[in-house]
């Protein structure tokens, strides 16, 4: 696929992941087709008070609807501030931005029924003046899909044509791990899904062990200092979600602090570094088993992205479980592994503006491709419509396609 030209539209992608540790903001040039051109990336940490409230909202609680509405407003203001700060960093005027794609903050993911993200796109559009695309998951679910993962379509645009490998695997290590198998014929070209937790449970235990001072196991130090407990690992690997084949999706509904509580109750000795080491083993074993079950041939490259790619202990264990594959981060291929998911929603936003369908049964289970996202017009709405018409005239949109 071609690289975006230097005159391709500027698009911002915004998201706050399942770990709720902050906002990722990425600026790219893209037409929604082919490989984009990355411009800038900015991470804005959430204050502890906001992170704690987001995590609390992911569980049922008192006055939930009122708290949800208030947090949606507050997050939207923060997303808008992150977009303008990113423009300042990149020395770009906000008025030169064609579009914003905001994934928002997931509060519930309950496939096949619904997936709820908050952070009002209307507020973002009003504050920035830029038309904003949001609610990417619902259109896929309307066609029978799980609404997740969606990043694999971006992985395909980035890497599918950049390798002669029979099978490359992109592993996105956020709170939840998802894998994208990029294969050559006669195998299916793309197979994807969530494998289970990546950092979510390790982050939660690390936060408890540090009295809230550490939001993650920095550089895998706790895991490296601990030892894996085989019986405690087997308990985790018996989780029914792991028995489902790809495509599938999950979230903190399945791998929640409540699950960690039950595990620690069954294995009290896991309330220390041995617990973090065992949770790391759970992450890497569930990833490796999902890859080997889904792949038509032995993977040649494992491309790591997301926050977990910064964890050397996690990288080492993935390499040990998949010894025949070359392990590398997306940064080694010219794609910032921290920025990739925010970039994905910028790219998907442009596809939505242009009316380009995106989807594959082997990724989400949907029975067709959908136009992913809902649009909230900003002050540049007429310009955005004219841009979409111009791009579609130059490259007519197909009626139905995967990426």
Automatic annotation (TrEMBL):
<keyword id="KW-0067">ATP-binding</keyword>
<dbReference type="Pfam" id="PF03702">
    <property type="entry name" value="AnmK"/>
</dbReference>
<dbReference type="GO" id="GO:0006040">
    <property type="term" value="P:amino sugar metabolic process"/>
</dbReference>
<protein>
    <recommendedName>
        <fullName>Anhydro-N-acetylmuramic acid kinase</fullName>
        <ecNumber>2.7.1.170</ecNumber>
    </recommendedName>
</protein>
<keyword id="KW-0808">Transferase</keyword>
<dbReference type="GO" id="GO:0016301">
    <property type="term" value="F:kinase activity"/>
</dbReference>
<comment type="similarity">
    <text>Belongs to the anhydro-N-acetylmuramic acid kinase family.</text>
</comment>
<keyword id="KW-0119">Carbohydrate metabolism</keyword>
<dbReference type="InterPro" id="IPR005338">
    <property type="entry name" value="Anhydro_N_Ac-Mur_kinase"/>
</dbReference>
<comment type="function">
    <text>Catalyzes the specific phosphorylation of 1,6-anhydro-N-acetylmuramic acid (anhMurNAc) with the simultaneous cleavage of the 1,6-anhydro ring, generating MurNAc-6-P. Is required for the utilization of anhMurNAc either imported from the medium or derived from its own cell wall murein, and thus plays a role in cell wall recycling.</text>
</comment>
<comment type="pathway">
    <text>Cell wall biogenesis; peptidoglycan recycling.</text>
</comment>
<dbReference type="InterPro" id="IPR043129">
    <property type="entry name" value="ATPase_NBD"/>
</dbReference>
<keyword id="KW-0547">Nucleotide-binding</keyword>
<feature type="binding site">
    <location>
        <begin position="17"/>
        <end position="24"/>
    </location>
    <ligand>
        <name>ATP</name>
    </ligand>
</feature>
<dbReference type="GO" id="GO:0097175">
    <property type="term" value="P:1,6-anhydro-N-acetyl-beta-muramic acid catabolic process"/>
</dbReference>
<comment type="pathway">
    <text>Amino-sugar metabolism; 1,6-anhydro-N-acetylmuramate degradation.</text>
</comment>
<keyword id="KW-0418">Kinase</keyword>
<dbReference type="GO" id="GO:0016773">
    <property type="term" value="F:phosphotransferase activity, alcohol group as acceptor"/>
</dbReference>
<dbReference type="GO" id="GO:0005524">
    <property type="term" value="F:ATP binding"/>
</dbReference>
<dbReference type="GO" id="GO:0009254">
    <property type="term" value="P:peptidoglycan turnover"/>
</dbReference>
